[in-house]
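Marked as duplicate of an earlier ticket. Keeping the data here for the record.
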Amino acid sequence: MYDIVFISYQELSADENYAALKLRFPMAKRVHGIKGIHQAHIKAAKKCFTKMFWIVDADAIIMDDFNFDYVVPDHQLDHVHVWRSRNPINHLEYGYGGVKLFPRKLTIDMDTNKPDMTTSISSKFIAVDAVANITAFNTSPFEAWRSAFRECAKLSSKSIARQNNEETEERLAVWQSKGRDQTYGKYAIAGANAGREFGLSDNADLKLINDFDWLYEQFSKHTI
């Protein structure tokens, strides 16, 4: 029904995950190597021909029972839809890293100055209460750290539109404490702590969390 686009940058498991996606959904497209998260999604939207389009992140492993067959009612064609994903380190299940269904035109015209890309497309948002994928971001120390840093900086700064503060604090606590025994779990916890500190700091420039070169510098300072 809608175009599917897989977005990757430097993720170690990207080729493997894209091959798995193509095996089940041969018409899936790919955007690779575009610097800037907003810019990559704009590029993805421009590759599509349907009013809505699916986004699959490079670290997403799609659940066997998820089929990209959701049909958006006409009155919700200007809504952002986000499915839940399962975190392999701390087992949280919410929209972080989940499969997304975006309005094409609004994505092309999005505000690129907002740090949280998903909530910068439309003020109308639907959180779909179903798990579409595992967000397997723990493929290296840096990727685990970077993912946790980015998410916890957004959570702690309260920069995500319409977030529930009590729920946010609960998620932050889990990110900062659970899963040390999982693959690269200690790096995810370290990234969560550093990201929370950054998000709470005075005059933090949250746009930096989308600069992967800057993130690697921070990773090196905190872990090496």
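See parent ticket for discussion. The radius of gyration is 17 Å.
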